[in-house]
Structures are given as structure tokens and as C-alpha cells.
Design a protein that fits this description.
Length: 435
């Protein structure tokens, strides 16, 4: 089957910094033949010149000079590869805490995630600890709608792990507890012991871990399910970026969340209200006649200028636009506080992330505190909320924001609330006040 006939899935790679995400995906691309030998040789040469030979696989993703120098992923990178059943777009998301906002954009576009966890003593513990990214990314992936996970317990080649079953089981047990708390159903999750650097269990079974009877990473990816595509709903395409390209004009890019966008469709971009006709649609440099949910596309709208599109805008069909929340208008959301050094009170104004949107919202009311186990009301109008509290709150944006109720469009109704470089709370939009 060529990739045209194979179903397409978006895959985001998440996890704590330095747990081996970019190295794993780079090595997977090399082993699966998605990278030419010439590119592999060139990358290895660059890595050696920078005296970072162990980073040779990571550099397939970390292509910014800054990333190569510092050895970390800053921005999102998209690469393609195939398994026997699927054709994947890999979104390599940054693990470093400073770059979580890019990771959120990545996860909000993914059908499934690979959660990379270092099995190395000390590294695993810091990732899963209270302020580790393993914990934060697990919450964010769930909030952003990533239902399927493959967990790689990486760095099996490290002496403290040494391809050992006991250490692997210890990491799996703790990670399982975390994922259950976050709300994952464990039957949707595969665990694989891996060494990204050595290539163990990425594509071929490792002879060093004969005790592992489960799938390799490639087999686990091949077992993922295609999510149902909400093609019957109205079109919602959140804009991730906009480019001015010679010969093509203004090209916004984003992922279709719901509905279908076809060439010649009349569309409206909210909140600005620009209307135009879709002239062309392109995916992975190939022209398409239409785009369906899950497709990451670039498109061209007749008459559009670079000022008509911004990150966080939403493209819909004319007459059926996305809901816009104005300053002074409230949304009601059910949230869970996952981290705050003190407490959240009315007046607090952190940044709300949803799909590709990032806008500051003010807490205008703490309506109800909930019992997290039963969802029953534990307290009306609490004075403050602290870590692990579940609550219903009212928030108001400081500028226009495109959002939807979770029950109507889950893809545009999930929120992550961030402040001070940390995710403070995650939740869903229950209601949007009428203007």
C-alpha cells in the first residue's frame, strides 16, 4: 500500500527534557528508511563537528542552530514515516519547561502520543516528581484530547537500568499510577523498554531484553486506532501559523479539527471576520482537493493578506462561524489545579491555551469546588483554589478568543491554564455566556 491509501495519523512525542525523545525519533526514521543515507551521513558529520556525536539522531529534528548548540528541542518539527498499516506525521515536541507552549500546540494536533520516559535512576524520578515534565505532559496530553499513548521506558543501555526487567517493572508501575490519576484507560496504552541510542526495540526485538514479550515501538504504533473523524460537523480549522511564500502568496497553516474544507469553499476567519474563497490546499507539499479532520494543511484564500490570519484564529464556512468570546464575556469551565505555589483567587490572570490559541484570561468567579472523586459540589463560591482542587470557575478574556463548548466541539473546548512557565490547571469549557 502506498501512503496515499494508508490511513494518516498525527503522532506527538512528549516527555521530560533529556529523556531521549529526539534521539528516539531520529533513530526510528533512520531504521525505518524514512531518511536517506546521504542525509544520515551529513547529520552525523555535523554532530561530530559540534563534538556531540551522541546527538546524531536528535539532529534530524533539532535543525535550528540554537537547538544543536544547546542540545534541546525548542520548536515543533514535522517529519513523515510509515508503518505497515499507517502513514504518520511525527510532531517532535520540546520537553524543556520553557518551551511547553510549543508542546501544547503539538499535542493539540495529535491523534496519539509517544511518552518517552528515561529509566535511568534519578532521571525517571525527577521527571515524574511534582515539578517534572513527565507528570505535566501526561496531564496536558489528556486535556488536549490525546487518548492513545505508547510509553517508551528509554535508556535501557544506561548502567543503572542495564536492560533489566526489575527496573523496567518499577518504572511501569509508577507511571501506570500516574496515568490512572490523570484519567487514562490503561487498555489504550502500550509500554515498551527501549534504548533510543542503541536502537533496541524500536523496530526489531532486542536480544538484550528477551524478557519483554510485548510489542516493539513500531508494532505498538501499528496497533493504534484511527480516531473517528468528525466530518459531519461544521468546519473548524485553528490557524497555527501564517507564511508569505513567493509565488503562492499568503499561506496560513493549521489542522482541520472538524468538518471538511474543499477548494472553492467560502470561508470566514474569526475573530477578525475576513471572508474569502479557498483557492488551493496543500499537505506535505502535495496539492489536495479537500482536507478532512486530522489533516495538517497549508491553504490559500483569494484576496487574503498576512494581516487577515493570526495564530489562534479559526477558519469556518461563511454563515457558520466559530464562537468568539469577547472581553467582558465569561466562559464557565470545569478545571483541576495541577500546580500552584500558593492559591488561585478571583482576579488572577494567567494565560489560557486551547487549540493554537494563547490569550490571558481573568478569573472572575470561583463558582463551585468539587469533590474530585464524585464530581459532587463540595463548596459553593470558595475563597481560593489550591493544588489538586477540582472546581467550576468563570473566566473572561482580555481580548477576543475563538472557543467552543466542550460538548459541541471537544477539539476547541479544552483548556490548559499556564503561568510562570508552568501548567497551573487543565479543564474543559462547559458554557459560554451569551453577549
Amino acid at each position: 500500500m502506498s501512503k496515499k491509501d494508508k490511513p494518516h495519523l498525527n503522532l506527538v512525542v512528549i516527555g521530560h527534557i533529556d529523556h531521549g525523545k529526539s534521539t528516539m525519533m531520529g533513530h526510528l526514521l533512520v531504521l525505518s528508511g524514512a531518511v536517506s543515507e546521504r542525509e544520515a551521513r551529513e547529520i552525523e558529520k555535523i554532530a561530530n563537528e559540534l563534538d556531540r556525536s551522541s546527538f546524531k539522531y536528535a539532529f534530524f529534528f533539532d535543525s535550528l542552530a540554537e537547538e544543536r548548540k544547546r542540545g534541546i528541542t525548542i520548536d515543533l518539527t514535522f517529519r513523515k514515516f510509515e508503518t505497515p498499516n499507517y502513514y504518520f506525521t511525527i510532531i517532535d515536541a520540546p520537553g524543556h519547561a520553557d518551551f511547553v507552549k510549543n508542546m501544547i500546540t503539538g499535542a493539540s494536533q495529535a491523534d496519539a502520543a509517544i511518552l518517552v520516559i528515561s529509566g535511568k535512576k534519578g532521571e525517571f524520578e525527577s521527571g515524574i516528581g511534582d515539578i517534572g515534565q513527565t507528570r505535566e505532559h501526561a496531564y496536558l496530553a489528556k486535556t488536549l484530547g490525546v487518548k492513545q499513548l505508547v510509553v517508551c521506558v528509554n535508556k535501557a543501555d544506561d548502567p543503572s537500568y542495564a536492560y533489566g526487567e526489575a527496573r523496567y517493572k518499577e518504572v511501569v508501575a509508577e507511571t501506570t499510577n500516574l496515568l490512572k490519576v490523570v484519567g487514562y484507560k490503561m487498555e489504550n496504552i502500550s509500554f515498551v523498554p527501549t534504548s533510543a541510542l542503541e536502537g533496541d526495540n524500536l523496530i526489531e526485538r532486542s536480544k538484550k531484553m528477551p524478557w519483554h514479550k510485548g510489542p516493539t515501538l513500531l508494532e505498538a504504533l501499528d496497533k493504534l486506532q484511527i480516531p473517528e473523524k468528525p466530518t459531519q460537523k461544521e468546519l473548524r480549522l485553528p490557524v497555527q501559523d501564517v507564511y508569505k511564500i513567493k509565488g503562492a502568496g499568503v499561506v496560513p497553516v493549521g489542522r482541520v479539527e472538524t468538518g471538511i474544507m474543499k477548494v472553492n469553499d467560502k470561508v470566514i476567519v474569526m475573530p477578525g471576520g475576513f471572508e474569502g474563497e479557498v483557492r488551493s490546499i496543500e499537505m506535505h507539499h502535495e496539492t489536495q482537493l479537500q482536507a478532512i479532520p486530522g489533516d495538517n494543511v497549508g491553504f490559500n484564500v483569494r484576496g487574503a493578506t498576512i494581516k487577515d490570519f493570526h495564530r489562534g484564529d479559526v477558519v469556518s464556512h461563511v454563515g457558520k462561524p466559530c464562537t468568539v468570546v469577547n472581553p467582558g464575556q465569561n466562559i464557565s469551565a470545569q478545571i483541576i489545579v495541577i500546580y500552584h505555589p500558593t492559591a488561585i483567587a478571583v482576579g488572577y490572570t494567567p494565560v489560557v491555551h486551547s487549540h493554537t490559541l494563547q490569550i490571558a484570561f481573568k478569573f472572575v468567579e470561583l463558582s463551585k469546588k468539587l469533590d474530585p472523586r464524585t464530581n459532587q459540589v463540595a463548596e459553593e463560591n470558595p475563597q481560593f483554589l489550591k493544588k489538586n482542587d477540582a472546581a467550576i470557575v468563570k473566566l473572561s478574556p482580555i481580548k477576543k478568543a475563538c472557543l467552543e463548548k466542550f460538548k459541541d466541539f471537544p477539539e476547541l473546548g479544552r483548556i490548559a491554564i499556564r503561568d510562570m512557565g508552568r501548567t497551573v490547571a487543565v479543564g474543559v469549557i462547559l458554557d459560554i455566556e451569551k453577549q
